[in-house]
Amino acid sequence: ALFSHATEGPCNTPKPGVFDLINKAKWDAWNALGSLPKETARQNYVDLVSGLSSSSDSSSQVKPEADRKQPGYETLVVTSEDSITKIMMNRPAKKNAMTTQMYNEIMLALKAASKDDSAITVLTGNGDYYSSGNDLSNFTDIPPEGIEEKAKSSAILLRDFVDCFIDFPKPLIAVVNGPAVGISVTILGLFDTVYASNRATFHTPFSHLGQSPEGCSSYTFPKIMGPAKAAEMLIFGKKLTAAEACAQGLVTEVFPDSTFQKEVWTRLKAYSKLPPNAMRISKQVIRNREKEKLHAINAEESRVLQERWLSDECTNAVMNFLTRKAKL
Ligand SMILES: CCCCCC/C=C/C(=O)SCCNC(=O)CCNC(=O)[C@H](O)C(C)(C)COP(=O)(O)OP(=O)(O)OC[C@H]1O[C@@H](n2cnc3c(N)ncnc32)[C@H](O)[C@@H]1OP(=O)(O)O
User: Fold this and answer.
1) 140: how many CB neighbours lie within 10 A of its CB?
2) 3-state DSSP call for residue 24?
3) How large is the average pLDDT for residues 81-86?
4) In testing the pocket of ligand 1, which one of 95, 101, 181, 209 has its CB within 8 Å of the most ligand atoms?
5) According to CATH, where is 3.90.226.10 located in the chain?
6) Which homologous superfamily does the CATH classification assign to the domain defined by 65-322?
7) How far is residue 23's CA from residue 143's CA, in Å, rounded to a whole number?
8) d(CA 206, CA 223)
9) Could you tell me if the CB of 306 is within 6 A of ligand 1?
10) So what's the pLDDT on residue 211?
């Protein structure tokens, strides 16, 4: 309005029709300036635009991530911005290996995100890895009741952890910034979208570790990629490149690592502006009929793993890693 008034003087064009909403709003604003002198309109316009540019230049308006970080997490950085809650695994020196504390904190963060006012939720990793999976030193923390008790409590933790992903009500997106191993791969079948850097790899070396599949992957992987390809991953531990994982349907889209963060977050910010209730309800329609089955599969996989953790095959594999004799 001020620009039109400064250049053309008081409003002098016919009023646009009632359905021409944008031009009508512009016309109303211009007309409201009445017979304001052109020079005053020019000065007001300059003042307004200068004010806009100085406020957008001021970096003090943008809170640094440290200030936006939600308190109470030691193994994660959790932030909420642009209707997106981002849960970032934050043990980069340990390749984001998942400790008992991290499993518990991810469950807490998911429960909070399911109730906050964000539209979508993202899980990602800090540093060069997405996650190297279960922290194998979890197995060294044996309680006085013995190893059976440890296997039992681990199976309960695993089951609760995977249940949180099965039940998560909003769109859940994995931003796989680098290699992913073990449980960080298997739960991807419970996400709605998986974006991967072309540096990411997908590795489920359960037989090498004397273990068996979890995260409902014994059901979701054959469904996603067919039984033959799923067996190569889950039984023989074949490591997939991001391109292979995308071709087999586990990954939604692969991006060059150099532009990964920029491209993915631009896309996610656009998605987060979609009507949140419609997205939640669409997810329910897509996922709900499978929920009961997934809970039963999770319970069964956890029960089988509880036994595996007590096997010599598993004990030897974990000892070999912890004594630096073996790596994947
Ligand atoms: C409640 C329990 C639920 C359990 C659910 C069942 C889950 C199953 C799985 O997730 S199976 C997968 C388990 N993961 C692994 O076997 C990976 C083991 N790690 C490796 O083989 C390698 O570290 C690597 C290939 C991931 C990376 O190799 P490299 O690039 O050479 O780095 P480093 O080995 O030097 O790693 C740096 C630092 O991190 C420690 N670390 C990495 N991953 C793990 C891990 N999974 N558990 C424990 N520690 C890990 C590594 O030891 C190094 O530590 P250091 O600097 O030496 O102190």
Assistant:
1) 11
2) helix
3) 96
4) 95
5) 65-322
6) 2-enoyl-CoA Hydratase; Chain A, domain 1 (3.90.226.10)
7) 72
8) 19
9) no
10) 97
- Cβ of 94 less than 6 Å from ligand 1: yes
- Copy the structure tokens of residue 141: 């923390």
Q: Is 185 in the pocket of ligand 1 (CB under 6 A)?
A: no
Burial (CB count within 10 angstroms: exposed 0-12, middle 13-18, buried 19+), residue 124: buried
pLDDT tens figures, 217-259: 999 999 999 999 999 999 999 999 999 999 999 999 999 999 9
Strands 84-89 and 76-81: antiparallel
- Hey, what are 260's tokens? 């990964």
138 lines ligand 1 (CB under 6 A): yes
**Domain 2-59 - what CATH class?**
mainly alpha
For 30, 111, 166, 293, 294, the CA distances from 163, given in Å and listed in that order, are 57, 11, 5, 12, 8
First to last CA, the chain: 66
Q: In the chain, where does DSSP find H-type helix?
A: 2-8, 21-31, 38-57, 65-68, 100-115, 147-167, 183-186, 217-225, 227-234, 242-247, 260-271, 276-308, 312-322
79 touches ligand 1 (CB under 6 Å): no
Is the Cβ atom of 133 under 6 angstroms away from ligand 1?
yes
**Distances from the Cα of 89 to the Cα of 22, 244, 271, 294, angstroms:** 45, 24, 22, 25
Task: Give 94's DSSP letter.
Answer: G
For residue 186 and ligand 1, the question of a CB distance below 6 A is answered with no
User: Does the CB atom of residue 132 touch ligand 1 within 6 A?
Assistant: yes
Mutate to test the pocket of ligand 1, among 104, 132, 206 (most ligand atoms within 8 A of CB): 132
Range(s) within the chain of domains with CATH label 1.20.80.10: 2-59
Are 89 and 99 within 8 A, CB to CB? no
Which numbered atom of ligand 1 lies nearest the CA of 317? 16
pLDDT class for 55, splitting at 50, 70, 90?
Answer: very low
**Residue-wise pLDDT tens digits, 132-142:** 999 999 988 89
